[in-house]
Amino acid sequence: MWLIRLDDLTLEKIMKSASARNKIKKTWGVPNHRHDRRRSDWEINFFGLMGEVGLAQALCLQPDWSLLVGGDGGIDLRLGELTVQVKTPLSAGTKNWLYFDHAGKFQCDLAALCNIDSSETAVVIRGLVHKDVFFEHCISKNFGYGDRLALHASHLFSADPLIQAVQQHHNTHIGEPC
Asked: Which residue ranges make up each domain of the chain?
């Protein structure tokens, strides 16, 4: 696992981006699809963006800051030819699970599971899984809002080799700019 600390400037940019995403969705009347009713739309966007930005930093990628009315189509990051979707579940019951509402929601080549640490300033990269492996090993699980396709974190591949290869390629170390 990797712990990626986000600096104050990055956190401020994430806050502004989460606000802008909420505003554009409200302006265009995009329906809310969140299941966690304990958190606001802004919180869901903020923590989701934290996961995306944390993984992007670890992989020396630029996060996608664009504002898209209909969302990102399930593609959060691009690593060469590979597409990556980042999942950042927040509740105690879901934080150890990489899950999708249904098979059609897994749009990328890879999915990454991230969590937010207790300080809410760092991202924990739990692991990655290829789409084929996910569907081979996932189970149907109900987190309180209907069955979802889910894979426990213990079945994910470590992100270490990928992150280390990228860091070595960029001749940098975690926490340093790429």
From this structure: 2-169
